[in-house]
Write a structure and sequence with these properties.
The longest helix has 14 residues. Helix 4 runs antiparallel to helix 5. The relative contact order is 0.08. This protein has a domain of 65 residues: Serine Threonine Protein Phosphatase 5, Tetratricopeptide repeat (Alpha Horseshoe), CATH 1.25.40.10. The protein is mainly α and 144 residues long.
Length: 144
C-alpha cells in the first residue's frame, strides 16, 4: 500500500511526499531495502542530486540481491549525465555479473543504436529470451 502511495505521489509531482513514503517503506522490511533504493535514487536524480542517487545505487549494489539491476541503474544514471564511458563500464559489469541476463545486452543495443554493435547486442538479448517488437528492432538497428 505504501509503495502504491509513494508511486502515486511521484507520478503527481509530489516528490517530497513520495520520498517520505519510500523511506517509510524501506524501514518496514529488509526485503524492501533494494527496491526502495532504486526509487529513492530516481527521485534524487530527478531533482538533479546525482551524487545522492549514485550513493543509493551503490548501496543497492553492495547489499542487494540483483547486481544487474543495480549496475544498469548506475549505467542509466551515468548516461543521464552524459558520462558515456562510465555508462558503458557499468553496462559491461552488468553483463559480467549475470552472463545469461538479456537486460545488459538490451541496454547496450540501445546505447549503440544504429550501429553494428546494436545489432550484435540485440541478437545477444534475443538469444537470452528478449523479444523485441518489429518497431523496436527497426529503431535499434536503424533499418525499416
Amino acid at each position: 500500500m505504501l509503495r502504491l502511495l509513494a508511486e502515486t505521489h511521484h507520478a503527481m509531482g509530489r516528490v517530497e511526499l513520495a520520498e517520505s513514503e519510500f523511506r517509510a517503506l524501506a524501514g518496514l522490511s529488509p526485503r524492501l531495502f533494494e527496491m526502495t533504493r532504486y526509487a529513492l535514487a530516481r527521485l534524487a536524480a530527478d531533482r538533479g542530486r546525482y551524487r545522492e542517487a549514485e550513493a543509493l545505487l551503490h548501496e543497492a549494489l553492495a547489499q542487494g540481491r540483483d547486481p544487474v539491476a543495480a549496475y544498469l541503474a548506475l549505467a542509466q544514471l551515468a548516461l543521464d549525465q552524459e558520462e558515456r564511458a562510465e555508462a558503458l563500464m557499468y553496462a559491461k559489469a552488468a553483463a559480467e555479473a549475470r552472463p545469461r541476463a538479456y537486460e545488459p545486452h538490451l541496454f547496450l543495443a540501445r546505447f549503440n543504436k544504429g550501429t553494428a554493435l546494436a545489432v550484435h547486442h540485440l541478437f545477444e538479448a534475443e538469444r537470452r529470451g528478449y523479444r523485441p517488437t518489429p518497431a523496436e528492432r527497426s529503431e535499434l538497428i536503424g533499418r525499416p
